[in-house]
Design a protein that fits this description.
Radius of gyration: 18 Å
Order of helices and strands: HHHHH
Structural class: mainly alpha
Strand content: under 5%
Distance between the termini: 31 Å
């Protein structure tokens, strides 16, 4: 049920936010590439572990580890992608209407 899903993902969601400052500090200390390797390996292993477990407490911890490793992506991954991009050009302009149904008066 949805209630069970929320209970299982609560730790992971908390760690996504709480781990981001630490991930940024680690990337400054060790470099974006090394920390992104940790992200890919940790996220992959956590996902495989989540898929293989057959009890609720193990799934809780697997999703917690997934959240911890996912915390790396935004503070480190965005900077890493920009630094590693080849042939950067100007950014594409934003569309005048960002979402269907959105207009000057809102939704």
């Amino acid at each position: 049920s949805y209630d069970t899903l929320i209970q299982l993902w609560t730790l992971g969601a908390f760690l996504v936010g709480a781990g981001a400052p630490l991930a940024g500090w680690l990337s400054d200390r060790f470099g974006e590439t090394r920390v992104m390797i940790v992200f890919f390996l940790g996220s992959g292993l956590s996902t495989v572990y989540a898929g293989l477990v057959d009890d609720t407490p193990s799934l809780f911890w697997a999703l917690g580890f997934l959240g911890l490793f996912a915390a790396i992506y935004h503070p480190v991954g965005a900077a890493w992608i920009v630094k590693k991009a080849i042939g950067r050009g100007p950014a594409a302009p934003a569309p005048p209407c960002p979402a269907p149904g959105a207009g000057p008066r809102g939704w």
